[in-house]
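Bumping with the actual sequence this time:
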Amino acid sequence: MKHIRKMIVAVLVSAAVIILIYNFTSQDEERFVKANESISTSLTVINNEDFAGTANMHRFDIAAGSALVKVSFTNTGSKHFTFTINEGSTSGAKIMSGSIPADGKEHTYYSDKALSTGGYYVNTSSAQGMSGILNVSLEINAN
């Protein structure tokens, strides 16, 4: 009876070890797959571009594939301004828009979906005049 008990304990311990090894190796594989799926490259297409006046337009292109867009504004003036990002032309489909307060802080916006190949326009405007700094970068999926 004692030998059977030892044998049952040995079998249970062996099974537990096999289950633990399987779980650890499968989790590592899942982490590797997820890491490879999320590999992306950041590309700055407009870098610290100054602008001023009542209206400005800046163009950027997505050359191939698709990319998420990150746009940052710093309002260096004393009046708020608004922005839109349009696809294809300054009056094309609106991708995003917002209002930037005159607080001297950086305000960052992200596209809610990947944008496809083509030209895009960042339009800024203020009836009272504005000044600021614009940055636009693309997150391009490398896979």
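The tokens above came from a reply further down the thread. Residues 88 and 119 are 5 Å apart (CA to CA).
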